[in-house]
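Bench notes, afternoon.
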Amino acid sequence: MHLEINGHPTQIPDSCHDVERLLAHLRLGYPVLVELNGLALFPREFASSRLQDGDKLELMRMVAGG
């Protein structure tokens, strides 16, 4: 499957058919902010948010700091 992740064309395995599996594949862990095709997702939506060829994602890891 072909996705655009943070502005970069990216090929991912077809087994990454939802956001939760994609994050596990990328080893991003939590907390992470996810925007799918311009819509921000709640973490509770990751498993139910299906990915399709051509989707655009913005992924940002949250870090503590001051």
